[in-house]
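cache lookup: miss for this entity combination. No prior model stored, computing from scratch. Input as submitted by user K.M.:
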Amino acid sequence: MNAPFHAEIRALPKGIVLELSGEIDGSAADGLLGAYGQAVAEHDPGTVVLDFTNVDYINSSGIALIVSVLARSRADKRKVMASGLSDHYREIFEITRLSDFIDIRSDLASVETELSDGIG
Amino acid sequence: MLSNPGSTPGRNTEMTTAPSGSGTKGGGVRGWLKLPKRPSSTQEGPAGAVTVSGPSLEISPEDPALAYFQSSSGAVDISKLELDSPAVNQMREAGIVVAVPLISSGELIGLLNLGPRLSEAGYSSDDRQLLESLAGYAAPAMRVGQLVDQQAFEARNRERLDQELKVAQLIQQQFLPSSLPDLPSWHVAAFYRPARTVGGDFYDFITLPDERVMLVVGDVTDKGVPAALVMASTHSLLRSAAPRLTSPGKVLAQVNELLCEDIPAHMFVTCLILVLDPANGKVEYANAGHDLPYVRTSDGVVELRATGMPLGLMPGMAYEEKQYELRPGDCLLLHSDGLAEAHNPTREMFGFPRVAELVGRAESGEALIDLCLSELDRFTGPHHQQEDDITLVTLQRTGSLVAPGGPAFAAREDHLDGLLTEFEVASREGNEREALSRVADAVTDAGLSSDQLERLKTAVAETTMNAIEHGNRGKADIPVRISVRLIEGDVVVEVTDEGGGAMGEVTADPDIDLKLEGLQTPRGWGLFLIRNMVDEMQESTDGGRHTVRLKIRPEANSDVRRSDP
């Protein structure tokens, strides 16, 4: 059950997707911030998508990491989107007001389409 | 305590001694002054038998003379001393010419006071040297005298306290029932063991006019004779109110009114009353701040909850009255805090979960009492001195336990309160995952919606993380204790650490705007999440223990209640 954190970077024409999996807690710090740093350095994307489809646990330390990623993106004027959040974590994104700054989409597929074709 | 060692070293010489015994803390010096009368008379009475009489001299702690004598290196010429001191003036009036401070271990313990020299010449430097060396011998001797006095005083005090304790014990025993109620199909057992200092525990059985039986347990704050007296009057008030009022809540309300008028300001009484109908096992109960009874049932241990203020604190109190039904095989324990709040040598508390667990284990009332006592002994260790009275009363309905799931079980579903699980996790980062899955497993039948379950899991995980990181500071050998209960249908999770303090997190609400601007750390979401995930969050500390209590009212449960009268 305790799956280690992993982040896969996938580049799309108009942005990058960080496919996150496992647990986002304090121990995911290097993995998440490292993947973000690498993606930004390699692709300089206008949009960063955090995909939570395969994430089964986020705790308050994980929320802090997401806040850090968001703060960096805003400093670099990159848009942040999220996909694949469960209802529960979506509620947490709302309570913490992360949802005011992150464009939350239900599934990754629609985001991929958006970042691949000419719309937006 | 005043003291004076018998011998004075010469004519017109007097000791002024510091107080010994309990009075030394004030910092003043008190003693006797002997007036120098009849200077010509010599050698009256055998040496060592001079008793002291005359006006007493008290040097108050503020008197500058005290510091002066304390720091002076030898004989002080009182007649020439320029000091605005009431004590020095008094000494002059009494004819004291020279005073030699008696100092032992740096502490001023008295003065060697001398009147005018018999030859009417002044004291020579030889005289002074002699006096100073005399003071050097006298001071430690006098200190020894004071210590002996002090010990004698303490011994008398102990004797007096022992006497008082005997009186308290006697009063207390007068009011404990001499026999147990004899009820067909019921078995009652009771145990009472006073602490050395005698707390104010009591219990009672009162048969009501309608043949129901009232069981009472109580505990008076404070100890010794005062507690015993308050216990005695509470006992009498209960006895007179019970047959007239019969309802446990009303009895408590009335006793509270009467007790409030007379009880000393700092004292109060916790008390639990349970009225049993032996014919059908139905009980009504009400509680005035006493430890809650536990019932062993076919489906686990149930805690009988009812709220109410202790007796004697405030007039005009109402006491919630609750009902329960004891079924064949059920066994109920009434107890006082001498059990659950006993400490072991490392100051760990025996604790209510442990008591609940023992209730679940025992086969009968007597066995339960034995089990409680042996487990308590094991917990506190061999050299333990019992801190408080211990009272245990058990009430067991004979017959075998009805299997869960049977018709009887279904009928009592709406008060299916009790302990669902209890466990510990080591204080290691990441162990909150274990905590949340064990809690989730325990509440599968509690009626939480899937959203509620997720919220509870997050709240438990965050609370456990706080307990691990802040409470127990990540020390793996200190466990975090977690219990899950159903209380009146609500899911209640308690997470306890040994940190003794509030959660080590900033209490200001985290603000995402400030965080994104870098004006607040990205962290600090734990407490905020917990508060938003549960219906109620409470913190409490008990000695070194810090407990966070989380409560969620299951959606399914509140629906059932509304539709099912």
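stored under new cache key. Chain A has one domain: 6-112.
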